[in-house]
Amino acid sequence: MKWLLRAIAGRCETHDRAAYVTTARLERELGLGVSPAPASFTDAHTDPNLIDCGNRRCRARRNST
CA-based angle 11:34:52, to the nearest 5? Predict the structure, then answer.
């Protein structure tokens, strides 16, 4: 049921949640102290901008930037 509601809303499970890589990059750009990395190596280094989830809306958003 969650996937159906997410599809209707045009949301993406991969790209619509905060990623440590993105948050840390933003913190550095703003001159803030970078928050500690998560314990999981995968969570600490996964960049959702490099992942193609197959969602047309995500592709259009990524290609427009």
Answer: 30
